């Protein structure tokens, strides 16, 4: 809630500055906005390299089929959620926000006093390839030294996110809203924002309902009982905004859904890092909304968006535990694959953080579905082996 309140305060402050203050005030705020944007751009490849490497290197190597099946189900769930979210968004969003509002237009009336250029050490795709090479290599060679280096790198990047970048986001958001207020497009954008956020939350609930209904029917279980068992995890995630922080409650909820303890203990911590269906629904919907509201862009076809959705499922492996980690991990794809500029990225961050708790709650509740399926496939086998 603190992050959301600060985000709202940043929006309001930016609008007031854009509407009622002189030009030099707006340009000063935009200078700060530019500096924060460069820091975010520089950090994104490091997030991808350290977190994905650490995530792959930390996967248990002696779990065989259970590990492979869990990863496949998690990625399949994330991919399907993203595709369905795009199909719904492409139909519904033009009815909710039909006006192109010059969102994220580079030719703003006001510009920063100084434009800083801080190029990243390497590109997003280079970071992703390197992460898989190092992650798989560390897992294969069992190199504890390299594993510790990447784990410590994750700690440093998480500190940068939680201590510097996340606290600065209200200023970053204020900058783009000040520019939009000065340009006259802010109120159209805000009206569309509210509609998009309502649509995202509804899609989360519909997705979870579909998951539990199908899972319950195919496993001979009551969907209502399964949902009831997972509700403590859902509401806890609303407060923590972190899948990792919710793991203890998620474990208890999964076991209450009659999943065997060894399966629950394996699947829940793993899925907390690799199963982000709720975050994917949010990112795909918000991406579509920002593109729709950007003059001259519009929502692309499914064929054009599918590579982005597929990469999104990979890029968010082991997304940081800090609030907003998924959108930070996705920024590289937004800029490299979809051509988002800094203003569009700022709007994506604002939209995502406004509902982060609901996306996280959907992630952890969906983990229960993965655990139920893994219990069906491997539960008796592990129980007999024990």
End-to-end C-alpha gap: 44 Å
CATH topology name, in short, is Proton glutamate symport protein
Number of helices: 14
Number of domains: 1
Approximate shape = globular
DSSP helix fraction: over 70%
Q: Report the uncertain regions.
A: 104-108
CATH class: Mainly Alpha
What is the architecture at the second tier of CATH?
Orthogonal Bundle
Q: Could you give a short account of the major beta sheet?
A: none
Give the tally of β-strands.
0
Radius of gyration: 21 Å
The run of helices and strands is HHHHHHHHHHHHHH
Short description:
The protein is mostly helical.
Structure, described:
There is one protein chain. The chain has 386 residues and is mostly helical. The chain has one domain (2-381): Proton glutamate symport protein, CATH 1.10.3860. It is built from 14 helices and no strands. 50% of the residues are buried. The model is unreliable at 104-108 (pLDDT under 50).
Keywords:
386 residues; mainly alpha; Proton glutamate symport protein; 14 helices; 79% helix
Lay out the secondary structure.
Elements: H1 2-20, H2 23-57, H3 65-96, H4 124-141, H5 144-183, H6 186-218, H7 223-240, H8 247-256, H9 261-274, H10 277-292, H11 302-315, H12 325-336, H13 342-354, H14 356-385
Helix pairs in contact: 1-5, 2-4, 2-5, 2-12, 3-6, 3-9, 3-10, 3-11, 3-14, 5-13, 6-7, 6-10, 6-14, 7-8, 7-14, 8-9, 8-14, 9-14, 10-13, 10-14, 11-12, 12-13
């Amino acid at each position: 809630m603190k992050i959301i309140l600060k985000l709202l305060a940043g929006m309001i402050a930016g609008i007031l500055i854009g509407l009622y203050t002189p030009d030099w005030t707006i340009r000063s705020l935009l200078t700060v906005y530019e500096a924060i944007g460069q820091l975010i751009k520089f950090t994104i490849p490091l997030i991808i390299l350290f977190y994905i490497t650490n995530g792959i290197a930390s996967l248990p190597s002696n779990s065989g089929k259970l590990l492979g099946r869990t990863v496949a189900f998690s990625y399949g769930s994330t991919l399907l959620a993203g595709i369905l979210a795009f199909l719904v968004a492409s139909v519904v969003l033009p009815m909710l926000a039909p006006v192109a509002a010059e969102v994220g237009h580079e030719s703003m009336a006001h510009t920063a006093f100084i434009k800083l250029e801080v190029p990243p050490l390497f590109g997003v795709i280079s970071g992703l390839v390197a992460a898989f090479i190092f992650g798989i290599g560390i897992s294969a060679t069992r190199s504890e030294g390299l594993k510790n280096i990447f784990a410590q790198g994750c700690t440093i990047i998480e500190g940068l996110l939680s201590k510097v970048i996340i606290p600065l986001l209200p200023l970053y958001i204020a900058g783009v809203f000040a520019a939009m207020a000065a340009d006259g497009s802010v109120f159209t954008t805000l009206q569309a924002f509210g509609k998009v956020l309502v649509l995202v939350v509804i899609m989360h609930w519909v997705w979870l309902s579909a998951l539990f209904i199908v899972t319950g029917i195919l496993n001979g279980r009551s969907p209502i009982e399964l949902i009831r068992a997972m509700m403590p995890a859902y509401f806890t995630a609303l407060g923590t905004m972190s899948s990792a922080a919710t793991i203890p409650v998620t474990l208890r909820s999964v076991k209450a859904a009659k999943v065997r303890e060894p399966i629950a203990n394996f699947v829940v911590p793993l899925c907390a890092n690799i199963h982000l269906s709720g975050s994917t629904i949010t990112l795909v919907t918000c991406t579509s909304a920002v593109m729709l509201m950007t003059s001259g862009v519009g929502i692309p076809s499914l064929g054009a968006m599918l590579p982005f959705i597929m990469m999104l499922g990979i890029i968010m492996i082991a997304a940081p535990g800090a609030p907003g980690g998924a959108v930070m991990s996705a920024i590289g794809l937004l800029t490299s694959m979809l051509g988002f500029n800094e203003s569009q990225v700022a709007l994506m961050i604002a939209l995502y953080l406004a509902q982060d708790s609901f996306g996280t709650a959907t992630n952890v509740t969906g983990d229960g579905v993965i655990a139920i399926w893994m219990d069906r496939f491997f539960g008796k086998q592990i129980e007999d082996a024990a």
